[in-house]
Amino acid sequence: MPNMQFYFTVPPNLHPIVQVLSSMIINLFIVLPVSIGLFFWDNAKQLIEKRKYPEPKVILVTGASSGIGAAFAKEYARSGVTLGLLSRNRERLQEVAEECEIKGAKCYIIAADIRDYDTLKETLEDFDNQHPVDLLFSNAGISGGEDDKVWTETWKKVFDTNLNGNIATVLPIYERMKRRKSGQICINSSVFGYFGPPYSIWYRTAKSALNDFTVDLYYVASKYNVRVNLLLPGYISTNLTRNNPNMVSAAYFAKIVKKQLEDNIFCITYPFYQSLFFYILSTLPKRVAPSVALALAEITKRPYDLK
Ligand SMILES: NC(=O)c1ccc[n+]([C@@H]2O[C@H](COP(=O)([O-])OP(=O)(O)OC[C@H]3O[C@@H](n4cnc5c(N)ncnc54)[C@H](OP(=O)(O)O)[C@@H]3O)[C@@H](O)[C@H]2O)c1
């Protein structure tokens, strides 16, 4: 997942015109060719190494009470599969569990807040003691809204959940998988991790940091035969996007993700055109990208609509 960041600054003692020209030359003739080369090399390598992995038997899903997490649990539900369903709302988890049990899965409800890091660690370890986890889907998250009047108040909530909460979920299970030398961890980030409109500041900076965390974890975990996957959804119809019926359904999205996880694709992103759009925005010069993003939203009458 190379990122061609046109963000290079040259020594400030140069004449401004020389600064601009040298920045352009460095980006065009060094950064761009190297990034493109590595991009093709990495993708070719992934295709060559591609193989099917066995279906996981024990799956732990956070944020399983609604949206993508619930759809993911239902997609994996079948006889012989054990599901750990984690979120704060026990009643909604119960409803998801009932649907999964009809499909033959054995379900365990784990009512927990991923911001309560110490309790979460104990809870996850207890679950893993009884049911060693094959696949962790670290998915719980919130949007924090896009209202510029409240954005200075929401940073802690969004970071505690979307960044620290996901890391606190992943680490205890990763340690266990590392000892067992097997397992798969899928971390649900967002295309906003590439780039997001300015009012989604906490959401996008938390997701962007989660991307970096996942990239590093992938590298470290590969030594212990633990597979790590980064999920970057575009707009999916869930509570987070006000259940917008024009967006891809969570059930369809979960099917795509399952297939790609079986192939162990590192970076899973869908719908493709949205992913490409945010990726291109991320490569624009940093000072103009937010204005371009907002102008495009204005022209297309498509606001970046998060609850
Ligand atoms: N929908 C999209 O377009 C979209 C796009 C990109 C990325 N994503 C990501 O996908 C993930 C799932 O979101 P969604 O779209 O499925 O929205 P959703 O329907 O609102 O689901 C969010 C889930 O996270 C759980 N959750 C929130 N805070 C939690 C906490 N502190 N502790 C435990 N569980 C918590 C919620 O359950 P409780 O309320 O029961 O705790 C719920 O199950 C999020 O990480 C989101 O950022 C979504």
TrEMBL record:
Keywords: Membrane, Oxidoreductase, Transmembrane, Transmembrane helix. GO terms for molecular function: oxidoreductase activity. It comes from the Eukaryota. InterPro entries: NAD(P)-bd_dom_sf (IPR036291), SDR_fam (IPR002347). The chain crosses the membrane at residues 20-41. GO terms for cellular component: membrane. Belongs to the short-chain dehydrogenases/reductases (SDR) family. This is SDR family NAD(P)-dependent oxidoreductase. The lineage of its organism: Eukaryota, Fungi, Fungi incertae sedis, Mucoromycota, Glomeromycotina.
